[in-house]
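seq as requested:
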Amino acid sequence: MLKNLDPILSPELLMVLAAMGHGDEIAIVDANYPAVTMARRLVRLDAVGATRVLEAVLSLLPLDEYVDSPVAVMQVVGEPDTVPEAVREFQQAVDRAEAKKVKITPIERFDFYERSRAAFAIVVTGETRLYGNVLLKKGVIRP
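struct tokens:
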């Protein structure tokens, strides 16, 4: 345990977050996601929900301010305008962490898969709600 760090941030996840560079992406995904198949680097937090993991990651990870939308979620198949409960929670968590409204872009399922396959890492959670998947693009910390 370390002071001032969220206790769900495992040593493995802390190493991944620290090793990421500006523009790298990390995916936080639900329990149904094919993470083992997709991941270049895999971190497991099976006992924790996706929103909770997102909050912990955002307590350390700066979002990229040089892109239109540093956050993406998976669209509901066949219902691209539907906003799942998990995605509504993601929006609230991101807005709180950044202290402003942040644009979250919904992307088609297979496009999400391709981006997560290219991501620096995938964090698989114990999230059981469908579409509990989010991609974050790392920004910079100014001197």
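The mean pLDDT is 97.
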